[in-house]
Write a structure and sequence with these properties.
single chain, globular, 18 helices, three-stranded antiparallel beta sheet
């Protein structure tokens, strides 16, 4: 292993050579994991020939089946690829460091600071909440960790103010959102890293794609002009690892073991061409606009399962990621039997610098069991029913809390605030929603998830609304039981409880 860090040509080459022996990858930084799997997918496509856009669909799927039958990546192909691009994989290479732009050392008047490059650290005027770091004395990180932070910034970096970069006399100090910022990625996971990567390689139909470039960043023949419009991308390399909106450069310690500083700035002034990512769920807004599903740290992965199996699913009219549509087309059904789904999400503001929470979640190997259209449609209806009851719980506990706690409304003797026709008007924000919303959700969602997986296990999707309503009533009752048992309070709660049936409350 060279000093440049864990993610180097040697270590990545070794990973590909031994991918059939490695069960999985453990990456603590979820934003980096989403990018790393894309980077590895590009390399896997190159060494297998599944990046060949001259192949027809039948030829491509037949080649993929034969590669899976081989059980490992070819040693000669792997060594040839890394031998060709080895100079581009050096994290601190002086001519073209991996995934970085060496021109920043001359084009930026100063470095950005290491704390700005590392996700989770406070920088500038931000307060220190989770870790104690100061810009005046940043704690260096080892090169391997820096490589992961680099990947995370390129795929999830923030828009807005950044270090000024001057190119051909033009100085700018703002960047666009990274392409995965605020989104959640879904990846198929097999028995080994080899199987996971082969299944992850997307097929780009030559009849449906343009002639855009198919270069990953480390494959480009030359560094791109930051002021020129980015070239369209349509192949696996260009789509997954060639459309970065930011430019970064790491500064190494004298011994090459650590990173002590870094530059983070804009990569292009023109918008990067929009291309659908094969690992994202796309859905349609009420206005007819198609967009990728946002990451939500409060949303469990099972609620997205129908979106991975169906097109035009739910009220969102979502369409499954390309790799999952293609995962249903194996000659050997046992491959699908063992595939799991892993999600990497980063709950962020896409248009601002706010980062909330990143997360990782996985499903059991259920794709074969739920992959037929009838079962997929049934579980979609079940998911919709579960979310409908959740909305009714939310409305019911809001109504109960407001009715009980609004003194201007006469307390719990009166009807809910929204039904009052006289008296002083009070906003819900004046009263607050109390602790019941979070408590009810915390009681309901875990039981709903267990019920969902039970339905899949037993292939029993009969009357999902009734079953989830029962769970919702239990959650509502357990939440509101703390309000006491005074007659007026219980009447208000019982009136609100009827909202879970979506029927008018009795007076």
């Amino acid at each position: 292993m060279r000093k440049e860090g864990a993610l180097q040509a040697e270590s990545l080459e070794s990973l590909l050579l031994n991918a059939h022996l490695v069960q999985d990858l453990s990456v603590d930084l979820a934003p980096a994991a989403a990018g790393l799997w894309r980077i590895l997918t590009v390399i896997a496509a190159r060494v297998t020939g599944l990046d060949n856009r001259d192949l027809t669909a039948p030829e491509w799927f037949a080649l993929r089946d034969s590669i899976l039958d081989d059980g490992a990546f070819g040693d000669d192909a792997v060594r040839s690829y890394f031998g060709k691009h080895a100079a581009r994989f050096g994290l601190f290479d002086p001519l073209w460091p991996w995934l970085q732009d060496p021109r920043l050392a001359d084009q930026c008047a100063r470095a950005t600071g290491l704390n700005t490059v590392v996700f989770g650290r406070p920088a500038g005027n931000n307060q220190s909440w989770l870790s104690h770091h100061r810009d005046a004395d940043p704690l260096p990180i080892d090169a391997g960790e820096a490589a992961l932070q680099l990947i995370a910034q390129l795929y999830h970096g923030a828009p807005g103010r950044c270090t000024a970069r001057t190119v051909d006399g033009r100085s700018e100090a703002n960047a666009k959102s990274a392409l995965l910022r605020g989104l959640v990625s879904y990846h198929p996971v097999g028995r080994t890293v080899f199987e996971s990567l082969v299944v992850s390689i997307p097929f780009f139909d030559p009849d449906l794609t343009d002639d855009g470039e198919d270069f990953a960043w480390w494959e480009l023949p030359q560094l791109p002009d930051p002021l020129a419009p980015p070239q369209p991308s349509s192949g696996v390399g260009g789509v997954l690892a060639g459309r970065f909106c930011h430019a970064l450069l790491l500064v190494a310690s004298a011994d090459g073991e650590q990173v002590v500083d870094g530059y983070r700035t804009w990569g292009f002034r023109h918008p990067v061409p929009v291309v659908e990512d094969p690992f994202l769920i796309y859905q349609t807004s009420k206005a007819g606009q198609r967009y990728a599903r946002f990451a939500n740290a409060d949303r469990a992965l099972w609620r997205d399962l129908d979106g991975l199996l169906l097109d035009d699913a739910g009220i969102e009219h979502s369409s499954r990621p390309k790799v999952f549509a293609q995962a249903m087309q194996f000659d050997d059904p046992a491959v699908l039997d063992r595939l799991r789904v892993r999600a990497f999400g980063f709950d962020q503001d896409r248009a601002q610098t706010s980062d909330r929470q990143w997360y990782t979640a996985s499903t059991p190997p259920v794709l074969r069991r739920v992959g037929d259209p009838e079962t997929a449609a049934a579980l979609s209806r079940s998911r919709i029913a579960a979310e409908l009851i959740a909305r009714r719980i939310d409305r019911a506990v809001r109504t109960a809390w407001i009715t009980i706690n609004d003194p201007a409304n006469g307390g719990s003797d009166s009807a809910p605030v929204e039904s009052r026709k006289a008296g002083p008007v009070r906003r819900e924000s004046d009263i607050g929603h109390g602790p019941w919303l979070a408590t009810a959700a915390a009681r309901y969602w875990p039981t709903a998830e267990r019920e969902f997986w039970r339905q899949i296990r037993d292939n029993d999707f009969d009357q999902p609304l009734r079953r989830f309503r029962t769970l919702g009533l239990n959650a509502f009752d357990e939440t509101t039981d703390s309000a006491g048992h005074r007659p007026r309070t219980r009447r208000a709660i019982e009136r609100a409880r009827t909202l879970l049936f979506d029927t008018p409350a009795k007076k």
